[in-house]
Amino acid sequence: MATTAELFEEPFVADEYIERLVWRTPGGGSRGGSEAFDPKRLLEEFVNHIQELQIMDERIQRKVEKLEQQCQKEAKEFAKKVQELQKSNQIKEAADVIQKLHLIAQELPFDRFSEVKSKIASKYHDLECQLIQEFTSAQRRGEISRMREVAAVLLHFKGYSHCIDVYIKQCQEGAYMRNDIFEDAAILCQRVNKQVGDIFSNPEAVLAKLIQNVFEIKLQSFVKDQLEECRKSDAEQYLKSLYDLYTRTTSLSSKLMEFNLGTDKQTFLSKLIKSIFISYLENYIEVEIGYLKSRSAMILQRYYDSKNHQKRSIGTGGIQDLKERIRQRTNLPLGPSIDTHGETFLSQEVVVNLLQETKQAFERCHRLSDPSDLPRNAFRIFTILVEFLCIEHIDYALETGLAGIPSSDSRNANLYFLDVVQQANTIFHLFDKQFNDHLMPLISSSPKLSECLQKKKEIIEQMEMKLDTGIDRTLNCMIGQMKHILAAEQKKTDFKPEDENNVLIQYTNACVKVCVYVRKQVEKIKNSMDGKNVDTVLMELGVRFHRLIYEHLQQYSYSCMGGMLAICDVAEYRKCAKDFKIPMVLHLFDTLHALCNLLVVAPDNLKQVCSGEQLASLDKNILHSFVQLRADYRSARLARHFS
């Protein structure tokens, strides 16, 4: 077939074509050729060639038909496009004409030209509807250029705003398919922002109208559905939903700030948010306060119920309350103390729950309060925290703990108030942290700051006063316990044994038991307090401990061996004093140890010992009082040496 195609030359001449074919065929040449003429072979070649030409003709014919069909199709499409363009142009022309006629008709008197004006108005309306319908169809087809053309024509018609409304409505079709309406709205606005400038001459106004439509219809309806359901029945869910919805709405607003929405987009978006939430924000703080009170009361009641405890009424007047308050501030035995069975009535879980509820309330208050109301609202939340955490829980536990402290002359008293002190200190730290972290930022630049600080100061001072009272009475009880131990265990014969040569102990049993008790109390104090409070309390206990031992030793008469045993006892007491790690307390016991030397020193050396470094600064009456405790004091020799 390729060979056949090569025989064609332009211009085509049939005789020449056959001649070329004959010459190319072996045996087809003239008699003078190199090869003899072969008519059969030539005939066969002609027959084959004719078949090839027929096949070629069929192929070319099919190709021609295909090209003709394609040409006809393109011709129809071109004709249609030309027709549409012509039609489009006639619309523009008609729009221009009807627009001018409409303007002219406005000037014509109605009584004479009412029919004409009516026809023009009808045509104006029909054409306007046709243009809007064309815009709608073009939007559905996604033909941006056609939308732009129609919008440009409609710009001078009254129905231009309706064209924008149609655009906004159709933009939202199928836009809210996810579970997150706020994310859907953000994606919709981003998509329209990229497109709107290619369609309208005032894209910022169209985008702003879309956003307004989204907020006032879609979001407002969604927010209402979410909040109205739980507004009256579930305050907790209502507040959480309100906070979440408001936060997500303001977050969406922040994303929309990047778009061009006109002059003051901040004010525009703020008004939209306000229009959605104003009915909920007006009374927000009342709902917050009511919920926080009921929730806090429930947390406390649930705790006391778990302890099977009925809260006592504190400070309500009456003889019993008067007795209790006198007993708390003195050591007068005005009846038995309340047995708390070791319960402090302080719960870290309760405290954490109250602080968590208050923290969430502060966060909601910060987000949902008007800036001018924020400090006042935050202060109201703080007063509820003070009421339920500080007064109803901590103060109640302190009062109950004070009432549970036994009198100083009680035997084998269990002292749980230090446990109250320990837990109260921990709670104070948590309370103070929330005050600084969550309340201060809300009131720092308002007059409410000084009011909050003053209230906090008053509360802490009241608590510290009760803690100080309880610690003081607890220390008295400790000293009372030591007195009981000494009274029960210390024998007169300990320091004046019948057989001076047969004393086998290093220190008395009373000393051993007192030291064991003191060490336990020192450890408990260290575990219950922190910072300088530990040193302050240990110093007070150490001073009282020293006074007790000093006065205790003054009750006995000492033989030489008994004096040695007293020195050993004081040495053990001094080891306890070292555990206090308070220099002043250790100094007191060092001095007491030196005084006890006066019980055993030889009479000739008394003056020398009294003038020594540790005793020289003491009053002479103190020195004399210890010398008088010696069993041999009344001997003329001793009295002469000490006079």
TrEMBL record:
- Asked if the record carries the keyword Cytoplasm, the reply is no
What InterPro entries would the database entry show? Sec10-like, Sec10_HB, Sec10_N
Q: Give the family from UniProt.
A: Belongs to the SEC10 family.
Q: Give Gene Ontology CC terms.
A: exocyst
Q: Quick one: a GO biological-process term for this protein?
A: exocytosis
- Its protein name is Exocyst complex component 5
Q: Which ranges form a coiled coil? A: 50-88
- Which residues are in the Exocyst complex component Sec10 N-terminal domain? 39-90
* Domain Exocyst complex component Sec10-like alpha-helical bundle residues, every copy: 93-642
Q: Which UniProt keywords apply?
A: Coiled coil, Exocytosis, Transport
Q: Name one Pfam family in it.
A: Sec10_HB
* Gene symbol of the encoding locus: Exoc5
